[in-house]
Amino acid sequence: MIDDGLWSAVGDPTRRRMLDLLLANGGGTATGLSDQLPVTRQAVAKHLAVLERVGLVHAKPSGRERRYTVDESQLARAIAQLTSVSDAWDRRLQRIKRIAETIQRSTDT
After folding, report:
1. What is the β-pairing status of strands 28-29 and 65-70?
2. Which of 7, 14, 19, 43 is deepest in the core (most CB within 10 A)?
3. Is the predicted pLDDT of residue 57 greater than 80, yes or no?
């Protein structure tokens, strides 16, 4: 089953970049992420809220800020869903290719 909220969250390129940064750095804060991205701290905080709502990140208080880490099991779930959809589309495209080849062969004769 496809989780539309999860897909919507990872569908945004800024959020995907944030996940990459969090994974590479073992976590981070909104301020730290905004230093590495071309968006404001406020925008980063909004993106983090979306990621947190779908369970891709978790936050813990860290001084005056919150430190975010990626929930790797939820990320694995998202990857599994993407792989499943990719496989389904590969099968569909192969069928379309076979149909097109059959049509081409019938018009060549």
Report:
1. antiparallel
2. 19
3. yes
Mean pLDDT, range 4-31, rounded to an integer: 93
Q: Is the pLDDT of residue 2 over 70?
A: no
Q: What gap in Å lies between CA 91 and CA 40, rounded to an integer?
A: 42
Q: Residue 26, by phi and psi: left (phi above 0), alpha (psi -120 to 50) or beta?
A: left
Report the C-alpha gap between 74 and 55 in whole angstroms. Answer: 6
Q: Please report how many Cα atoms fall inside a 13 Å half-sphere around the Cα of residue 37, on the Cβ side.
A: 26
Please report which residue ranges of 1-109 form alpha helices under DSSP H: 4-10, 13-25, 30-36, 41-53, 72-108
